[in-house]
Amino acid sequence: MAQSLTGAGGLQSVPALLHRNATEYGSRPAYREKEFGIWQSWTWAETAAEIEALALGLINMGVNEGDFIAIIGRNRPYLYWSMVAAQMVGAIPVPLYQDANAEEMAYVLGHCGARFVIVGDQEQVDKVIEVQEQLHQFEHMIYLDPRGMRKYDHTHLHQYSHVQDQGRAARDELSGELERRREKPDYDTTCVMLYTSGTTGKPKGVVLSNRNVIETAKASSDFDKLRQDDEILAYLPMAWVGDFIFSIGQAYWCGFCVNCPESADTMMTDLREIGPTYYFAPPRVFETQLTNVMIRMEDAGAVKRKMFDHYMAHARKVGPAILDGRPVSAADRLKYRIGDMLVYGPLKNTLGFSRVRVGYTAGEAIGPEIFDFYRSLGINLKQLYGQTEATVFITAQPDGEVRSDTVGVPCPGVEIRIADSGEVFYRSPGVFVEYYKNAESTADTKDPEGWVATGDAGFIEEETGHLRIIDRAKDVGKMADGSLFAPKYVENKLKFYPNVLEAVVFGNGRDQCTAFINIDLTAVGNWAERNNVAYASYQELAAHPQVMDTIQSHVEEVNRSVAEDPMLSGCQVHRFVVLHKELDADDGELTRTRKVRRRIVEEKYADIVAALYDGSPQVSTETEVTYEDGRKGSIRATLEIRDARVVPVVPQKVAAE
Fold first, then answer.
1. Is 614 exposed, middle or buried (0-12, 13-18, 19+ CB in 10 A)?
2. I want to staple 367 with a disulfide (CB 3.0 to 4.6 A). Which of 207, 469, 496, 529 is the partner?
3. What is the rounded distance in angstroms from the CA atom of residue 426 to the CA atom of residue 437?
4. pLDDT (tens digit, 9 = 90+) per residue, 76-108?
C-alpha cells in the first residue's frame, strides 16, 4: 500500500501502521486474550486479516466515510480491531465507557450522531435498545458475544463474526473500494473522538487527528525506549485516552503485544501470568494493590510481619537511590539484595510487576507515600501529566529524575508556560483539533496560537525544569485567613491509608478545613472479620466506634504531616465525617474515570457540610441512591461528626497576597 512521505516515516494513519506491522513483523504476536482460562493469540498478519474482514463487512453494511461508529465493551482484541476497521473505511471510532448507564450513553450517541454501534455483549445491547428511540441517526448494532441474543429481533442487529463472514464473501466486489478508502487518510484526518469525563458538566467530544496520535506515540515511545518485544496489559476503559494511546497508538507504532484479561475479576491473576514490561495504572489501582498487600501482612504470622517491616524500612531508605543509580554503600546494597530475595522479589511477583521496565501513573495526583512504596521495591514507577486534549502527554519523568512531588519535564515537542494566575498552559503536536460541535468551548480552551489551558495550577522549578502541579485551578483557593487551600494534597495523604478509599476536603473561603471520608470496605471488612466484629452493611461498619477511632487517628497523623509544609499547613482537617455510602459514578458523585465531582458532592450533601461547620456532634441525612438495575431508592443515616487534633502553626499566606 503506497503512502505519501508526510508524517512519521511516511506512516500517516493507524491502518498504515497496521500494514507495516503485518508486512514486517507478520509472525510476531500482536494481541492475546484470555478466554475460558486459556490465552488465545493473534500475530500481526492474523490481526490485519481479521481487521480487513470486518472493514469489508462494514462497507457491505453501508458505512460511509465520515460516519461515527460507537464502540462499547471491555478490553477485547475484537473491539480494538473495530476501531482500526472503522478508521480503515474512513469512519470515526467513538469508544464509550462500558459501565456508563443508558442515559449517559444516549447523550454521547446522540451528540456524535452514531449510525452504527459495536458492542461487547447482551448488557450493552440492552442499554442501547433502551434509548434507541432517542437516537435519530442510529441504524445498526453489531454484537460480539452471542450469549443471550438468540431471541432478539435481528432486523438491525448483527453478530460480529457474521459481519466478518459477509465481508470475506464480498472481498472481490469491495476490495477496490476498501483500498481507495484506506489510501485516503492524511495526517490531518480524524483518527478518533474521545469524550471527556465531564467533572463539571456534559462530556465534550475531543477530536484527535492522525497527527496527534502518531506524533505523540512516536515521541513518547522514543522517550522511554519502548520496544517491539514489550508487553502491556490492556485493562483500563477503552474510552479513556490513556488506553487508546498505549493500546493502539504506541502498540501500533512500536509493534508490541497487547494482552487483554479475561475479566475484571481475573485481572490480577492475568497480570501475574503476562508479567508486562510496560505498565500503566491510575493512582486508584496502585492504592488498591497496596491495600491488599497491607491486608495480607496483617493476616501474616509475627515473624513474617516483622521481616516485612524490617526490610521495607530499609527499602524506603535506599531503594529509590539504587533504582536511580545514585551512590549507595556496599553494606546497604547487600542488605537490599537480601531483602529482594526475601521480600521485594516475591512481593513484586505477587503483584505481577517482576518484569516491569517502565511503569506510569497519571489521571490524578498520587500520594507521595504510595508512590515511594512502589519505587522502594525497585519498580521503575514514574509520573506523567496529561489530558485527553493533549493526546495524553504533557510532561513525564525521565529515568534518574523521578520524584514524588513533580510530574516531570515537558515531553518531546511540548512547550509549557505558566500564566500570571498560576494556570498551566501547553502547546504540542498532540493538541486536539476541536471539541465536536462546540466551537465556544474550543475557543475557551485553545487560543489561536495553539496554547491550551489545562485548568490546573502549578509552577516550574527553576533549578530542575520540573513541573509541579498544586491542584485543579478551580479547586485551589484561599482559607479565610488568606492561606493556601489545596484539597487534593490532603486527600492523597488520607488515601495512603488502606482503610480510606476516598476523601473529599472542604475549606475554600472558610476558617478551617473539614472532610468526608469513605472507608475501604475490603480493608475494614478484613479487620472486622479478624476481630469478630459483626456488621450487616457498609453503613453499619462505617459508623462502628472503633472504625471511627481508626479514621480519626489517620486524620490526625495527616494533620501532623500537612503542618510540616509551611505553604499548606492551613489545610489541616479540623472536623470529619465518615459517609454512610460510597461515592458512586452511578449517583453522579464520581466520573467514569473515578474522579470526584467536587461541586456535585458539596451540593448533594449540603446538610452534612453545614453540620461540619456549625459545630453539630451529629447529623441526620437522607440520600438518593441508584441500584445496579437502575432503580432509585434512598437511605437514611445519622452520622457522627468527629473533631480532629490539629498542629498549631502560623499559616503562610498565598504569595499573591
1. exposed
2. 496
3. 23
4. 999 999 999 999 999 999 999 998 888 889 999
